[in-house]
Write a structure and sequence with these properties.
single chain; alpha+beta; Ribosomal Protein S5, domain 2; 2 domains; eight-stranded mixed beta sheet; 8 helices; 35% helix; 32% strand; globular
């Protein structure tokens, strides 16, 4: 049988604030996760899949042209093989437009688009909610994210008000200005294990996150969301010296607001399209050693068979 090919695209669910709700005694995977919020960055990950039926299973993954054992992609292949009966060689090529490991939700988008593409190849199809439920389990098992996949259930400025996998998860959103964009400045990944391995610090992060989310809900505007998210980063001790230096410069620019990525040594600003180029150029001149990039805000989820 000849090879079959497919394509999928999804946004990157950038996280601005979170309140971890991790396993307690007796809790199931679908019941844990995080409350929080962030932005969907349009076209975050594009995935090209090729399936060649055969007797020997082989899984090959490329990320931005480099062959990698990317954990959430391989896990998505493993689950798809089991659910769809796909025997043979599967090749996934992920084109990722956001930095990886810095709070942009790349690992969730990679797993999500892998599932969409492989279910399309199998002729089965899959709903967004079902795919999100599978991605939720992948992220918890691989320790790559907490409820990032909830961003695929809405668009723009997304709030996660109840943790867990669909249908348990509760999602809402805050309207943003017309022609809004996100300009990001990425420095380096942050080691989240220091937070999640320390119960007292984890409780502190959870308490501050819950407090700031309540303050966001009292005034659900983009400006207040970003202000409270920024306060969260500072009060929870997640804002490094370099992040705080970026904050100082962002305060001087024409923005709707700004915050730190969760979890990453990176920041993002909500800007109007008319101001985006000026903001991006200014940040590039101030921080030439960091990656500065501007994204459309929105959600485009598609999957199709490729000729």
């Amino acid at each position: 049988m000849s090879s079959r090919r497919s394509y999928a695209v999804a946004p990157a669910p950038l996280s601005s604030i979170f309140s971890p709700k991790l396993p307690l005694s007796g809790k199931k995977v679908e019941e844990v996760g995080a409350r929080g919020g962030g932005f969907t960055l349009r076209g975050g990950v594009e995935t090209y899949a090729e399936y060649s039926p055969g007797e020997v299973d082989e899984s090959i993954v490329y990320v931005n042209g480099s062959k990698l054992d990317f954990i959430t992609s391989l896990k998505a292949i493993e689950i798809s093989r089991r659910l769809l009966g796909l025997r043979g060689r599967i090749t996934l090529k992920h084109e990722v437009s956001v930095p990886i490991g810095m709070g942009f939700g790349a690992s969730a988008s990679i797993a999500f688009t892998a599932l969409l593409a492989l279910f399309k190849i199998a002729g089965r199809g899959i709903s967004v909610g079902r795919a999100c439920s599978i991605v939720h389990g992948i992220e918890v098992e691989c320790k790559t994210g907490l409820n990032s996949e909830a961003g695929f259930l809405s668009e723009g400025l997304v709030l996660v008000l109840g943790e867990g996998a669909p249908p348990r998860v509760r999602v809402d959103s805050i309207p943003i200005p017309r022609d809004s964009m996100i300009t990001s400045i990425a420095v380096a990944p942050l080691d989240g294990s220091k937070i999640f391995s320390d119960p007292s610090r984890l409780r502190k992060v959870e308490e501050i996150g819950d407090e700031k989310l309540e303050e966001i809900l009292e005034k659900p505007t983009p400006e207040n969301f970003l202000e409270k998210s920024r306060e969260f980063a500072l009060e929870a001790g997640l804002a490094t010296k370099r992040v705080q230096e970026i904050f100082e410069e962002l305060e001087k620019l024409q923005l709707v607001g700004y915050a730190q990525n969760m979890i990453g040594e990176a920041c993002h600003a909500l800007v109007l399209r008319k101001d985006a180029r000026k903001v991006e150029e200014r940040l590039k001149s101030l921080f030439p050693e960091y990656l500065v990039k501007t994204f459309e805000v929105g959600s485009l989820i598609r999957s199709s068979i490729q000729a």
